[in-house]
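ok new one. same drill as before - structure tokens go in, u give me an amino acid for every spot. 100 of them this time. try not to just spam alanines like last time pls lmao
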């Protein structure tokens, strides 16, 4: 399914509304910008998606980790800027996995 949006904010509003209707929350995840600093790709994911980064060895930690709250849920939407349409300001969803 490919959707079209006028800007990055419209993508976020759509997916946030969809998530609320289906009982989950979302967060902004990955972003890519061009040399001018304009957003060319934005990914929005389920708020508990991903995994904890293991930056410190367990032996070196003073305190234990908090309980895990992350999951491997694939729910996400990724929108890329399509420069061919609307003077380069049209975002198209290129990858979306929606939760039911």
């Amino acid at each position: 399914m490919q959707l079209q949006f006028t800007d990055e904010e419209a993508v976020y509003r759509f997916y946030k509304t969809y998530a609320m209707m289906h009982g989950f929350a979302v967060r902004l995840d990955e972003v890519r910008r061009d040399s001018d600093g304009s957003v060319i790709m934005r990914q929005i994911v389920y708020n508990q998606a991903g995994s904890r980064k293991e930056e410190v060895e367990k032996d070196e930690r003073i305190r234990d980790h908090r309980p895990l709250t992350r999951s491997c849920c694939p729910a996400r939407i990724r929108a890329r800027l399509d420069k061919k349409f609307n003077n380069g300001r049209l975002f198209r969803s290129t990858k979306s996995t929606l939760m039911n």
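DSSP finds one helix and five strands in the chain. and btw The chain has one domain: 4-50+70-97.
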